[in-house]
Amino acid sequence: MAGDKPDAEEIFKEFKEQSITQFFRKNSQMLGYSGKVRSLTTIVHEYVTNSLDGCEEAGIFPEITVEVKELSENKHHVKVTDNGPGIPQKLVGKALASILSGTKFHRYVQQRGQQGIGAGGCTLFSAITTGKPIAVKSGTGKSAFECNVAVDIKTNKPLITEMKDLPADFKGLSVQGEFGDTKYERSDHGVQEYIKRTALSNPHITIKLTEPDGKENIFLKSVNEMPKRPKQTKPHPLGISTRDLLDFAHTTDKNKISSFLSESFSRVSPSKVAELKEIAKEVDFDKSPKSLLWPEAEKIVEGFRGMKWMAPETDSLSTIGAQQMESAMLNIINPQFISVTERKPKIFKGGIPFAVEIGIAYGGDAGKVTEEGTKGNIMRSANKVPLLFDGSVCAITEAVNQIQWKRYGIKNFDEEPISVFVNISSVYIPYNGIGKQAVSQEPEIIEELKLGLMESARKMQIHINKQRSMHTMESRYRTIIRYVSQLATNLSEITGEDKSAIEKRLREIVESKYDISDAKETSEEKEEFETDEEE
Ligand SMILES: Nc1ncnc2c1ncn2[C@@H]1O[C@H](COP(=O)(O)OP(=O)(O)OP(=O)(O)O)[C@@H](O)[C@H]1O
Ligand SMILES: [Mg+2]
Fold first, then answer.
1. 3-state DSSP assignment of residue 67
2. How far apart are CA 21 and CA 97, in angstroms?
3. How do residues 276-316 score in pLDDT, each as one tens digit?
4. How far is the CA of 48 from the centre of ligand 1 (A)?
5. Which atom of ligand 1 is nearest to the CA of 102?
6. Ligand 1-lining residues (CB < 6 angstroms)
7. What is the pLDDT of residue 526?
8. At what angle do helices 516-525 and 443-495 cross, to 10 degrees?
């Protein structure tokens, strides 16, 4: 030590490493645990998305029950049960307690979960706020068991206790735990809204929520079809960064960079690799990908960007589907009118496919009911997962705000009974942050959202205009028809002709002028729901 100032040796006596679990223990807000209402919604979100992914991967129509009970102020018991494939006994600890482990993060396939953090995050949050483990019941169809799982914060290793075999008739997964620093609230950010929106984005599921006051919310499935299974694909060369390339290269089992490139990426044939060799001359394509360095990876990515490519495959996308979306909106929002638009897949950042679906609901129970009346609302969703937070920075909100709603007959979006429901699908949704609640404002995504919104809004406008003109016609008809009887009496007195014959003729004249057969139909239509296909 020089004087009283510590030198490097002194300072670095304190040098330590921390596990990923220790990191998230201090930074749980990064996982969505910030604010009591949001924390509770995050827990339900993590378990429900896992249940949906698990069921869909096993080809099972998801049936999920969620129960939230209040244990004391700011402390809740949450239980989520599904009818999915369950988790094998030997992996249950790693799957539900360790962070950064799972069956999804290493595959390039569109699923809700991506990182292997969600379930472990819940286990950690329970430990931090109550010191309790998570109780698990799992059945794979062949065997079943129950146990408690927790995590060793220093090592990120699972701690399993109370392991017991169960009769094999339980199939699926049930997780339950106690969570402090939580609050149940029936608001736009609460669990009930989250479950309702989950049902909206996933018409093929049945989901039941029991709220702390015992109120049951049941959303039955709106369609009898499972969504198309997303295909596992390889990334397109135009959609990867230098960092991605290095990560892929360092974990591949291929021996040479050339074979690694043609095996790992879509559209990269051996002849394309030969073309790349001419551009990235300084890279040794025969060496092991494990020894690939940053400057070399940079050259390869630059080379890729300068070459001509076939567009990426789009069958990796699993959308909700226009008809399914309409059924769900009809069932859950119950509006007067629905207009749905499913756009063809497009590309962002040069090589990442995505697709947008837009549903506009108008009238009836559409919009958000507030004390000041019904207001327009935006329901955002990405890969069929509702996004309830950080709306102000999301590409979807931005696109909706950029639409000139007046042009489509909506005088003030904030004051009309309108709900705009948007889902974006992609293997790689560009979220703004680790909390995955807002889609970043990529220009291609905003543009595509706007086109979809305008298409849906146009269809809706035609319907509204038709209804308004019918309404005007109908009220004129009713005004005039009131005088027909009196006029017939007067004319009969003047001409001496039969009153009923005159009245009949007068009615025919009025009806032919104001063709109210349509008006009558329109008022009947109000009871039904329809999609106006006219452009
Ligand atoms: N209900 C379930 N049914 C079947 N498997 C499950 C279930 N819940 C979790 N798993 C398994 O546990 C793994 C870890 O789940 P976890 O939520 O931590 O990560 P993830 O879903 O892969 O990614 P993300 O962090 O984005 O949620 C999953 O990848 C899956 O293999
Ligand atoms: Mg998950």
1. strand
2. 10
3. 999 999 999 999 999 999 999 999 999 999 999 988 888 88
4. 10
5. 29
6. 46, 50-51, 54, 82, 84-85, 87, 95, 102-105, 113-120, 173
7. 36
8. 130
